[in-house]
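Example for tutorial group B:
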């Protein structure tokens, strides 16, 4: 099972500037790829990659992994918009004001047990301190699948870290107890 943990980044002032620039450049790249895909009616990721990759590498200081990540997110947004359009909904070209930066295992190293995250930015790797809430302590040894760098309305940065959690399989006993379907209480046994 996968679970998303919302982890607060504690960047230095230099790192904060780098994170802001990275989100801005990533959003601009996302918007450009969306505009090209919308104009040329492309929703295939490979076609969009061939159409936009080299131009995006020239236009932005983003690392290669983040250029590809922005294109993947743009492809997903375009496919979603086209699907809505096919259902008769009125849609326009996807455009973001602040696009969350998607990281994979190559572009981010997150060590919840050591309270840091090393993430790719437009000015190189940045090793930022993180704050792990008490409720997430039981997940710090879980394998990390991906993460998204998000900015809230107050300008703070968060990592939404997706972890793979091992679920304990409960063996069915065949014994039926009963379920209270009342509105006021969850299921109880006696």
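The residue assignment follows.
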């Amino acid at each position: 099972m996968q679970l998303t943990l919302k982890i607060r980044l504690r960047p230095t002032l230099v790192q904060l500037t780098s994170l802001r620039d990275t989100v801005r450049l990533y959003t601009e790249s996302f918007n450009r790829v969306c505009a090209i895909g919308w104009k040329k009616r492309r929703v295939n990721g490979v076609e969009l990659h061939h159409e936009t990759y080299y131009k995006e590498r020239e236009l932005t200081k983003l690392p290669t992994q983040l250029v590809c990540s922005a294109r993947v997110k743009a492809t997903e947004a375009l496919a979603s918009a086209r699907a809505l359009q096919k259902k008769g909904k009125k849609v326009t070209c996807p455009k973001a004001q602040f696009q969350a930066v998607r990281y994979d295992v190559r572009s981010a190293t997150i060590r919840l047990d050591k309270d840091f995250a090393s993430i790719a930015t437009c000015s190189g790797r940045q090793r930022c301190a993180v704050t792990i809430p008490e409720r997430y302590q039981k997940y710090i040894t879980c394998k990390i699948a991906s993460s998204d760098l998000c900015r809230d309305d107050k300008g703070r940065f968060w990592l939404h870290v997706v972890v793979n959690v091992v679920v304990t399989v409960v063996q069915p006993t065949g014994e039926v107890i009963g379920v209270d379907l009342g509105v006021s209480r969850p299921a109880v046994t006696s």
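The mean pLDDT is 90. Compare this with the pattern of hydrophobic and polar residues in the output above.
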